Amino acid sequence: MTIRILDNCPACGACLMVCPVKALAISGSKLTVNESCIECGLCIQQCPVQQLVLPKDTPSPSPAGKGKGKRSEDIQAKEVKNNAKVTGV
C-alpha cells in the first residue's frame, strides 16, 4: 500500500523534500506516489492542506464528492523514527 492523495491536493510540492525514498513526484499538475512508498508519514505531516493520508485513514467521500482530507492522527514522530530504523532509511 502507499500514501493516498486526496482530490483537493494542489500539487504544491511541500511533501517532496521530506520523502526518504523519493516516492512522490509531480507529473503535469498532479502529485503521484509510486510503489516505493514505505508509509513513513513524513509527507502527511508536511502537507499544508492535509490532502495526504494513510489508506486506513481515507475519509469517506462527502455527498457532494468534495470531502476534505484530514491529517492522520496516528502518525507520531516516534513511530516515524521507529519505521526508519526498521527499514534502514
TrEMBL record:
Q: Where is the 4Fe-4S ferredoxin-type domain?
A: 1-28, 29-57
Region: Disordered; residue ranges are 55-89
The question of whether Cytoplasm is a record keyword is answered with: no
- Where do Basic and acidic residues bias regions lie? 70-82
GO MF, one example: iron-sulfur cluster binding
Lineage top rank: taxon: Bacteria
Q: Which InterPro entries match?
A: 4Fe4S_Fe-S-bd, 4Fe4S_Fe_S_CS
PROSITE patterns cross-referenced by the UniProt entry: 4FE4S_FER_1, 4FE4S_FER_2
User: What keywords are assigned to this protein?
Assistant: Iron, Iron-sulfur, Metal-binding
What Pfam families does the entry give? Fer4_7
Spell out the protein name for this chain. 4Fe-4S ferredoxin-type domain-containing protein
Q: Which organism is it from?
A: Syntrophobotulus glycolicus (strain DSM 8271 / FlGlyR)
